Amino acid sequence: MPQGKLKVKTKLPAKSKPKRKTAKGPAATKRTNRPIAPKKQKHEAAQKLKKTITKNVNAAIEDDLRAKALDGKKSLTSKKKASPAANRKSKRK
């Protein structure tokens, strides 16, 4: 049993004009003459640049620390590590 009044649907007056629906254009515009450049290539180029900058900065800092630590003495360790391919060749002999 419903509580309160039941809703009655209202009717428009007979004199009122019905609304006309306007024709809408296509939802997506055509971009044939304005292609969108891919963002991934730009992002990858920026990341590559950042990586090379940090690599160079770290190498420069390492050289400075090496120079300060040695103070003109001869280093017994090499700056670059030997490649794994060189290690395999020496083991075969």
UniProtKB/TrEMBL annotation:
InterPro entries, A to Z: UPF0390
Pfam family, any one: DUF2462
UniProt feature, compositional bias: Basic residues: 1-23, 31-49, 76-93
Range of residues in the leader sequence: none
Domain of life: Eukaryota
Annotated region (Disordered), positions in chain: 1-49, 67-93
Family as reported in the entry's similarity comment: Belongs to the UPF0390 family.
Name of the protein this chain belongs to: Uncharacterized protein
Organism, scientific name: Diploptera punctata (Pacific beetle cockroach)
